[in-house]
Predict the 3D structure of the following.
Amino acid sequence: MGENNQIISDTLLWNKFIHGDEDAFRLIYKSHVQTLFKYGCNFTHDEALIKDCIQDIFVDLMKYRLTIGSTNNIRLYLFKSLKRKIIRSLHKSEIYRHLESDKIPFQYALSNEDEIIEDENTRNRTRHLELAMSTLSPRQKEAIYLKYVSNLSYEEISSLMKMNYQSARNLIFRGLEKLRESFPKEIVLLLSLLRKVKNP
């Protein structure tokens, strides 16, 4: 689906939802809940907390649907909402209480369902990908995850990470350069594995 068609589709679906269409609400939930969970796993290993935050998002959507306004990008709206809720929850703990929101570490972690890989070669390559990602800064990890796993555009990444368009491009470029320096012969394989993570 092209970007313009996606915008039209999201706009129509969202408008149906805010006007009380329960089927539209269920479709929004079904289409995004797994992607939201995987994104949340990169901020914390506490799966219960992630699931609670996701549930809170959809409870809030139903509760405030008449006042939340329109959107032409449902996934970006939900990603922003989840990130905000998780960071607020983490700030309540002693470990993260004094950290600024943009300093909460993005860990790049495979969710449990991604780890259930029977093929040993694939499992080893996946672990190698995690090792490669561990060489990046948290901001680089998040930007590269959003670009290659979640398939967000630079515009969406800049909006979600609260930076301008060029800064988002530069962040991803520097991250890829670091991967090339550390794993010069395997960069293509690493990017290929990143893309496969979204479809385990």
